[in-house]
Amino acid sequence: MAELARAALALFLIWLVGALLLGALGLRRRRWPLGYAQPGIDFAAGCALLATVWTLAALLGWRVTPGLIFAVAIALAIPAGMQAVRLRRQSGADEHAAPGDAGMLRRRAVSLRRHGFSWATWLAIACFLVVLAGLLIRAWYAPMFWDGRYIWAFKAKEMFLDGRLDRDAFTNLARYAYSHLDYPLAVPAAQAWVYQVLGRVDERCAVLVGVVYWLGIALLLGSYLRRRLALSWAVGVSLLACQLPLVSYHAGGGAADVPLAFCYLAAAILLAEWVEYGRREDSVLAALMFGICSLVKAEGLTMALGGVLAFAVAWCVKGRRVTAAGAVLGPLALVSPYLPWAALRASWGIPSLQLSYVGSLSDWAQMAARLKTILHSLASHAISWQQWELAWVFVGIGFIAYLWGRGGCAPPREVWARWRRAPAVLWGLCLWQLAVYVANYALSHYEIVQYLNTSLDRVMLHLLPLAIAAAVLSLARGDRTPASSPSG
Amino acid sequence: MGKPVARVLAGLLAVLRGDRQQAGPAPGVLRVFALLLVAVWVVGSAARGGLRQASRAVVFEVRHPKLWPSLQPDAREQWRGPYFDALAALLQERSGPGATVAVVVPESECPSFQSVPTRLYETIYRLYPLRPDFFVREAAGHYQPFWFRSPGKAPPEAPPLFQHDYLIWAPPPPAPPSGYRAIYRNSAATICCRSR
Known about the structure:
The complex is a heterodimer of chains A (about 500) and B (about 200).
Chain A: H1 2-24, H2 38-60, H3 66-93, H4 101-115, H5 119-141, H6 146-162, H7 167-171, H8 173-176, H9 186-198, H10 203-206, H11 208-225, H12 231-242, H13 245-251, H14 257-277, H15 280-296, H16 300-316, H17 324-335, H18 339-348, H19 353-356, H20 364-382, H21 385-388, H22 391-406, H23 414-419, H24 421-443, H25 448-475
Helix pairs in contact in A: 1-2, 1-3, 1-9, 2-9, 2-11, 2-15, 2-18, 5-12, 6-9, 11-12, 11-13, 11-14, 11-25, 14-15, 14-16, 14-24, 14-25, 15-16, 15-17, 16-24, 20-24, 20-25, 22-25, 24-25
Chain B: H1 2-17, H2 28-48, H3 50-61, H4 82-91, E1 101-105, H5 118-127, E2 133-137, E3 143-146, E4 166-169, E5 180-185, E6 190-194
Parallel strand pairs in B: 1-2, 1-4
Antiparallel strand pairs in B: 2-3, 4-6, 5-6
Helix pairs in contact in B: 2-3
């Protein structure tokens, strides 16, 4: 139990540094309903900050000790405190102006105290707690997932035992190529921090990082869907997405797939919020989350590129206006998480293994055959009950509903015009990343069946929470929030 | 049947054309179908899906830790057995991080994409910060170093087998090579240390 308590302390400290970082940047708001998901976003920011500290320390030739992390936290606490005071003063002035923030949270709390949860909500919460308990027990007792051990936990072990990033361990392709030397450090940095607080390597505690991200997906999905659905339905759909055997399996496996799914979901939702309501802090936080995606896993780079394209489309096609401050802060937030890691890769010559997997572009017949295999495999995985139950069938119905809405001839009412923008953003990002994955498989020189068997489930996992959110939005009746006024 | 399909196709065309026309609500029939699907999903999950697995884990997992199914062909390896006991014994040697280690394995363990050499990866994982070099015995009796995939790069130089401080033989050799003494032996591996 002492290990668990120390691991919980380590995870709490990651959340704390993330909250301080976002607080210092003025990006930490308690807007309803996404305020309930703020701890997950804080945690992701904390992991990214730890990775940045490790990377900058490697560039400077420093060792990373707990003292250095605490010094960073204290340095962030001062501007975060000043921002908090400023926001408190401001929220007193415009408590009733914007949807969310402190005033909305208070009104929701009063409403809940008065009416309480329905029996269906209680049932969904109880089921959720059972799933969480099962996940924790599995994560504690079962061996780690293959990638979790040899890619992510291995890097964490190196970092903890060496106290710094060891150049040989990150450049020696002959010995360590299997550990994906070019994969970024957000997850191993968090796991190494857990080891630092524990004082030793204990993989059972390292996998808890993934469990926190799993909780983040549940909270974020539930709170976002709450805007469109009754609370019991929002919690229920979130539960259904998170209880899937494959999702809980990977959440406790120690790999970076569930963290990546969370970050992509958060980035997409925040971008959709900006497209709908036009608040500047949503756009900056979305850009930051896209940047954090690129620091979680190599696939996050294409997610960030998809984010850039979605920003551009929203700007040009939808006419969403960008202020000068947003035009500066957004790109900065997008690029800054990955910059130190890119600098270290350039400095040490860490190769891009992803690009080395790409085969020849000239053999069209072979590529067409691979494409057929990929699409067949995608379809058969999607309807596999053992892995996904009915999740992707549900997503398919949601997509049909979305297209149905688009194909309607009658002029829509203004309310639909406003809230139908969000599904467009979510579906667009979902399809973009799916196209990237299909292209990657089609161009790869690996034996395709083996490649698909060992990776397709995780690739689909990256997209699932986002696809569920898009499907629910496409099927739901409408917005349950009061109308809002853009603020930036 | 024809009209709904035409409408969905019209929507697809609208998306592909980039029409700026805003969309209408999903029809009631689709929502009803989605509700039915969710109901079946909940019942199915409770009967033979994630909800059942989770509840069984809460009740039984502590006593039967192999309850959760393997979902990938290479996902699970039980890292127990005499070979891994040998690695633990080497770690207890207090050899220091600068010590050199060589692992001699049978030719069947040379890596390929089809047969991922998980045992060797586990060896690297367990022994870190020691950094083992891997050797294979060829038919002629020579020992050759081998490496994992290194696209576009020449493999680095490794010291010859008999210049390493520690040798792990899996399976064990009939007798320790000259200049080395056996410090650990079990059915799967022998550890030899260079004589001082």
